[in-house]
Amino acid sequence: MPETLRATSARLAPISGTPRLDAELLLAHALGIDRNELLMRQRDLSVPPCFEALIERRLTGEPIAYIIGMRDFWTISLHVTPDVLIPRPDTETLIEAAVDHFGRRTPARILDLGTGSGALLLAALSQWPQARGTGVDISPAALAVAQGNADCLGLGARADFRLGNWAEGLDGPFDLILINPPYIARDVVLAGDVLHEPEGALFAGTEGLDDYRRIAPMLPRLLASDGMAAIEIGYDQRTSVSALLADQGLSVSARRDLAGHDRCLVATPAPLA
Question: Are residues 48 and 89 in the same domain?
Fold first, then answer.
């Protein structure tokens, strides 16, 4: 088993930045155990016949999360399919911003626009057990994934998923609004896992700003007076998206991800003069 992991890591190295981790996750999946158990028992286990097929899929560039069907995010594990974006650690910056904003308070009513797998909403509901939330997505397939995740996590009774175009037809106020919209410019050349992810969740016009322009005017009517919106942005979009939010009378600040890139804009109602 150790030699299998070493050999598999070498095979995956040309296409992956984390070949050893990939090998471990795929082998654990093939064995039907978690990675920790694999690492503890690797000398006692045999390689199952299905392992090679999983490696071949990874060698084509298919993301690990889609192959094994799971991804960890914040404190929860989520089922993911090619119908949804793969949740990433950078996006946890939005939850961190919300935790800092509310402190000991609970955001009673949460809205997640472009919910996808339900990652942001379900992470927030797990963080605040008294909260309830609504997740909106334009994709019925994505909503099915989100609802399944909510049910598996025991959060289905507090999560309402709706088909919709951003916040059209919704009434506030919401204490917390979480938004991870498409923000990649159409002419950007992609590589890696994103080549396998749904285009509709990635691209947003020639500048990558189309969906921010739709969303920004909706926020003032949706936000509670002491609430906040946490909005994911591309690393070079702080100035442009901040201007769109400020034009709606919102106060804006930025937070950086673990790599030091601007990743989250925090929008709050401007204080009354």
Answer: no
